[in-house]
Amino acid sequence: MKKTILFIAMATLCLFFKANAQLKYQQNVKNEAFVIGDKVPDLMFDSVYNHISKTLKLSDYKGKAIILDFWGTWCSTCLKYTPHMQEFQKKYGDRLAIILVDDAKRDTEKILMDFLEKRKSEGREITLPILLKPKNTRIWFPHNVFPHYVWIGADQRIKAITGPDELKEENISRLIAGLNLHLPVKER
């Protein structure tokens, strides 16, 4: 009986400290949209798929450029560009991190898992890390239409916010090199 009570007490303390750490971690994050030029803090996300951990922090990719690719499993335009994103990740993996962000209202964990399994069985596996319904992304990176891309330099500053037309090798090379992108801004 004492062991059971001790176990429950320890488990409760662990959960409390984890929740408290996450709260403190996110306290320095603003509650409004980031814009080009803003420095993005070390955001932390839960519900991560295709990743070594169920959590992901932007600092996991320190020194790399990052592209946040907002998409949905039902978005045909998004899926058209996914193979290109995987190729860019493969080619520039040591200097670039591409993270898929599925914050579509209609996607659930089951829908995502079924979708990923189907793609894998068809020989079109998606290997990029995926954030499912991450908290606050619609506040920080507002958008109404998929696909939506947020380009973050290795200096953690937002360099561009675009649609798919700007996903070109030249622009990705410029992002990685730390050069100005001068790309048209996608209106939500």
TrEMBL record:
InterPro entries: AhpC/TSA (IPR000866), Thioredoxin-like_sf (IPR036249), Thioredoxin_domain (IPR013766), Thioredoxin_ResA/DsbE_sf (IPR050553)
PROSITE patterns according to UniProt: THIOREDOXIN_2
Cellular component aspect of the GO annotation: cell envelope
Signal sequence coordinates: 1-21
Claim: RNA-binding is one of the keywords in the record: no
Domain Thioredoxin, first and last residues per copy: 34-181
Molecular-function GO term, any one: antioxidant activity
Biological process, per Gene Ontology: cytochrome complex assembly
The entry's keywords: Cytochrome c-type biogenesis, Disulfide bond, Isomerase, Redox-active center, Signal
Compartment(s) of residence: Cell envelope
Name assigned to this protein: Thiol-disulfide isomerase or thioredoxin
Organism: Pedobacter suwonensis
Lineage, highest ranks first: Bacteria, Pseudomonadati, Bacteroidota, Sphingobacteriia, Sphingobacteriales
